[in-house]
Each structure stands twice: as C-alpha cells, then as structure tokens.
Amino acid sequence: MIPQLRGWHEKYETKGLKIVGVHTPEFFWEKSHDRVLAAVKDLGIKYAVVQDNDTKIWKRFGVWAWPTTILVDKNGVVRYQHIGEGAYGETESWIRRLLAEIG
Cα–chain-centroid distance for residue 65? Predict the structure, then answer.
C-alpha cells in the first residue's frame, strides 16, 4: 500500500491530492512517536502521517482493518472506501474523478 500512496502523492499532489497516512497502532510498542518518525523516514514517505494512538480517527471513519483506504471529497464527504490491499486501479480512478471535481 505504501508504494502506491507514494506514487499517487508524487503524481497528483500538484493537482490537489492531499494524502494523510494515519498510524493506528495495534500494539503498545507501536505508539512511540520516534518509531513512527523513523519508519516514515525509512520508507521514504513524503506525505503527512498522523498518529492515532487513541483510535479517534479509526473510530470516526468506522475502520476495522489494516489497511483501509478512504477518499474524502472537497466537501469532506467520504466517497470511496477500500479495505485491504489491492483495488489500486479502482482507487486511482476515484482519485482522478475527485480531482476533476476540484477543477
């Protein structure tokens, strides 16, 4: 999933795509801010990543599995959601559709 997110960030950032990776830890040792920063650096992630140690974002969007991809339109409405790996072509199609709505 991360390679696809990096690619979409590079391809569509200048067209208005904003990617926010949400790190919701499963285990207590995954809650360390320093470990998240190190992973972001090691993985070459250039888009924003937030920590969701208290699972507020996870719960707000009804997420129950890793990874989950959610696309939100310019009005803050969830327009697409995919649970698990795969469906990269469909996800990118939705990205292009939503960017076209921005104009």
Answer: 13
The answer to whether residue 103 scores a pLDDT higher than 90 is no
* 74: CB partners within 8 A, 6+ apart: 98, 101, 102
Domains and CATH numbers, the chain: 2-102 (3.40.30.10)
pTM of the predicted model as reported, rounded to 2 decimal places: 0.93
Position 71 confidence tier, pLDDT thresholds 50, 70, 90: very high
For residue 15, give the DSSP letter.
Answer: G
Spatial separation of the C-alpha atoms in residues 99 and 93, rounded to whole Å: 10
Which pairing describes strands 20-23 and 48-51: parallel, antiparallel, or unpaired? parallel
pLDDT digits (tens, 9 = 90+) for 49-58: 999 999 999 9
3-class DSSP state for residue 80? Answer: strand
Question: How many helices (H) does the chain have, and how many strands (E)?
Answer: 4, 4
pLDDT at 14: 97
